[in-house]
Amino acid sequence: MKKCSSVLCSRWYHYLLAFALVVGMLIVRFNLPVGFGERPILILFILPVIISALIGGLGPGIVATILAAALTGYNMPPAGKLEIRSGYDLFQWIMLIIDGLIVSIISEWLHSMRHKESSRRLQIETANAALQVSEEKYRNLIDNIPERIFVKDKDLAYLSCNEHYAADLGIQTTDICGKTDHDFYPADLAEKYRADDVRVMESGHTMSFEENYKLLGRDTWIYTIKTPIIDKNGNIAGILGIFSDITEKKQADEIIRAREKYLQAILHTTAEGFWVINSQGLVTEVNDAYCFMSGYTKDEIIGMRIKDLDADEDPADTAARIKRVITNSSELFEVRHKRKDGSIWPLEVSATWLNEYGGQIICFCHDLTEQKKAQQELTHSHNLMRYIIDHTNSSVAVHDKELKYIYASQRYLNAYKINGINVIGKHHYEIFPDLPQKWRDVHQRALAGEVLKSDRDSYVRDDGSVEWTRWECRPWYEADNSVGGIIVYTEVITDWVLAEEALRKSEKHLTALIAASPLAIISVDLEGNVKSWNSAAERIFGWTQNEVIGKMLPIVPKDKAYEFDKFRNRIINGAVYTDLELKRQSKDGRLIDISISTAPIHDKNGEIAEIIALVTDITDRKKIEAERIKLQDQLMQAQKMESVGRLAGGVAHDFNNKLGVILGYTELALSKIEHDNTITDYLKQISTAAQRSAEITRQLLAFARKQTISPRALILNDTIDGMINMLQRLIGENIDLSWLPGKDTWYVMMDPAQLDQILVNLCVNARDAISGTGKITIETANSVIDKEFCSDKPEFIPGDFVTLTVSDNGCGMDKDTITNLFEPFFTTKDVGKGTGLGLATVYGIIKQNNGFINVYSEPGQGSMFRIYLPAYKTAAENTDDECSKNTKPAAGHEKILLVEDEPSILEMTKTMLEMLGYTVLAADSPAKALNLAETHDGNIDLLMTDVIMPEMNGDALAKQIKAIHPKLKLLFMSGYTADVIGHHGVLDVEVYFIQKPFSIKDLALKIRQAIED
Asked: Would you say residue 117 has pLDDT above 80?
């Protein structure tokens, strides 16, 4: 209805025209001559209907038809009666209606077709205009974007390109059509582009290429995208290409990467700790400084939660702190973290929230350990200073420049009876309102910068008693050197004054006391002539009173005369000396060590008239003191050696266990690989390095006197004879090695390997002291040490000894070097040329064998090391084991119960034993070993057990298992030091023991010894 209404409204003039035409025809009808007849001429009404239909279409045509039919019917005779009296009239009337309808319908159809055609032409014109605008916009867009764009047909000939691409080629956009890459690029580059195009067309997929070219003398990076063009039939009709210059982006990326690397380097080299956590508290990044602080590796920390590192906060506290950092963007706080070893250290953390990368908290930390320690030390120092001030003889009060109390010592509060008052911050005159003007003047002068003092001042107390004081009032200064206030020192000297008065009254008694004093009391005048000389001076120096009075002081040696004159002049000028130690001579010419205290004597006018000296003979005391210092140095050296020994013993077990695993598995691997295999060389290098590491451990243990040894009775000459050739090769042909064996030397009880260590270390040390050619001499001799010889050598003991002397004519040593000679890691050699353990090892071996060593050397005069080893008077037994000469590991078939609490050592040793042919029952604890011993069917031939284990030691385990298997043989092993597993560093002779780390050959030998014993 709305549509029809709209159409009607849009054609109202057509309806008006139809109505006018029909009415006009009616008027014409009535005005026609009568000749036309009385009936209406229907054609006259058909014409307006046709005209209305042709002009207005269906609606106006039907309106005109209806109107014409009505008027015609109404006007047919008889007019106005609406009667149809003639069939012809009815026919014409019907034809009028039919013709009107047909003409209206045909007219409407013609109108519709014309309108459609008009609309279609309008749409085409509009579409063409829009297309032209769109193409113009597209062309402008393509030409103005920075990328280079081109289109090729399926034969790879150019169809078009944008202006940037044409500009690069130096042509107009219209010049490219129909040309190929060969028209613009070198042949090789053109072929490469063509190959890329072919791959895109064959694959039917978009491809991208990032390539580097040398253009105009610089490296240029090009990024190209090529995509196939699909026609309406789905076939590839060509290629669309887009490429851009990404050189600047590449350079920017490189700068960013360099910047990131630079920042990473800063973060990982800064001394401050740094880590990153996400909003859940998970550590995502950490620097080396924090790893060093915490003891964790970077891989261990990353992935941990911050609550695992915090020592105090619980998860709720940590979550709350993270929330505060996120809310406030940053926070500065102090926390305590746990190191990997369980220790805790304080740190100050600066945390910042970043929204990037999903949200992160960047944390920098500063280790507060030293700061906290410094604060504690400062507090301690402050408390100590306060303690000292509170307990000094002087009362101390500190005021600011307004004379308000800043500090008052306890003695001050007690002395002035204000102990119950809190004086801090109060004015001095408020506490003492009746203070005399004299003191007020003193305070003002001190605030002006003066230092005022009195050695003797009196005041009357409230009770009428007189007190004597010694006081000093001085200013104290701010950092800008302005006066900040005053300090008042007061000391009550009433007792001293009273004593002085009493002293004057007893002056005569004092003279008698001087005469009877055990101290030499001497006085001289200003010229140095003796004025008084008591009996003690006569006893100490030998001159009688008559021999010295009035004469120059005779006790000053001639070479000390100038020094004495300076000393005397200083005293005359007011200097006082107390317990000054000097050397003076006696009457018989001996030099005597004395302690002298001097003071000037004033006459009644206050002028210095004489000098008095109190002299004590300290010759004996000095000797005792020198001996005490020497003994103290020896004690400190012994304690130092013991400390390093404990350190060496502490690391030996774990270190030897790890070396045992390395050496064992290396040896097993070597046994499984062909000798010409390259891996064999690598494994041998590993084995050599591990053996050297084990040797360093043995050297430390030897120095600490804690290595496990197997002593035997030796004649040094026989053992050294077998070493001479090896020692000569060791020191080189340019050095002459002289061997001077003593006759009929006694036996010594020691491990031959230790003797080897002593000689090798001393000869190498001597070789390094010789520049060019030289000589080393080795000597042996018997020596009897008596008590007199030991009197000035506390480390020596009387007895029979065999001496081993190694001397050289090298560069020698000064006293400082000799003092530190046997300290571990002390060396005078260049870096990399010595470990500093050689002579320390020698010292440790000698002490372990109850011997001692004497060193004599002077710079440029060579050195001599003389070693004293206790003589062993029992004949030596031949303890050499023939099976030790066997180069092949001895195998067996017996059954061995192996007990080891270290899993890696247990598995490695089990593998070794099985390789040697033994049947092995392995247990990783004493409890499991006992269970195997009880439940195992058949005999167990050997128990091989670690000595130190958590549940029980190896000795206790052996006793329990021997109760089950009485014929069981024993072999102990350990990586601990000898003082832990033996007695005084020496294992019992009847006990079989193998030291970790051990080789298959050593293991095979020890097992056969233990089983076949």
From this structure: no
